[in-house]
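Please annotate this fold before class:
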Amino acid sequence: MKEMFQTVVLFVWIFASPMRTDAKEEVGRAFDPERDLLSLHYDHAPDRDDGHSAAADRTVIESLFGAEWMVHRVLPISGTYGKNKRSFISESDAVMDVVWKARGGWVAVAREWDKAVETVYERWLAVLTEGGDVFVKEGGQSDFTAAVVKRLRQEHPEIETHRRIHVIQHSRWNEDQTTPEALEYVKMHARYVRISDANRYLNVKGGDVAFTQAAIEHPVFGPSWQAAFKYYDPVKRLDFSDTGELLYILGLGEMSVTDFMKRFLQQERSRPSLRKDNTGIFATPPAGRTPEK
């Protein structure tokens, strides 16, 4: 009887106890557009898909939140490479200028690493000091992220970076090209989330004619896509797989190229945006809003 009782207790303990697969994941929270920062990282080394992702990122963010919001809540960073540093493509600067220059600008890591770390550190610190979190769309390696997190921990050890800096990565290749020490540091001192590879649904070999046409003809985002396509020919490949990380951060889930086109490139000049209703849940306002100029 005693042995039976012990067996029952053990069974209840095993199945009633919460499964802890990742302690950092448990303390994460949803992105809050009223106080958080989107830190968009592009390696541009050696593939050119970051150009497509830059255009896609702006398309999503500006469609949801508007142009003015981006100036204060978005920080694009180019050249966040790791072991692949020598393969950085300097031509990417032209794409970054077209996409981001009029929306608050962007940080060029390749020009001066230390200065870039300082710039990003200050932006992150300002948001963290005001009670917001930082969400990193890790569209490259994590060496640069590690450098900024390390600076924060050195200067402000009271900031719980493991809870308030959320690093979203979708690519095993990006992890392999990160120096091992940097990857380990980020996983230890930030909330590191590895999602499924977005190449499954945002990468089309041979391109997509309908998508390309809709993108270049868009009245607001057309110039960004044109620059991206000049940089990386969509006839060869349409690839904005890194944007899968942004979709994850914003709670939009996995979205096919066709669904992306229908939602963000074909809707009549309307600009749906995410806002919180009185329940704290993100809601989409009624259709019919005119785009912000």
